[in-house]
Hints:
Layout lengths: L1 H4 L6 H9 L4 H16 L4
Amino acid sequence: MLTEEAGLEQPFRIQSLLGRSVWSADALRGRVQDYALSGLIPTA
């Protein structure tokens, strides 16, 4: 599905990118949490 959304015919490039990338689940969770809270908490 991700490959289709990116407009690619084969999934190999996306699989390679995701398989070789280094990322932190904790850091990602923090960024998503900050993003969600920014939409829920009104700014003055």
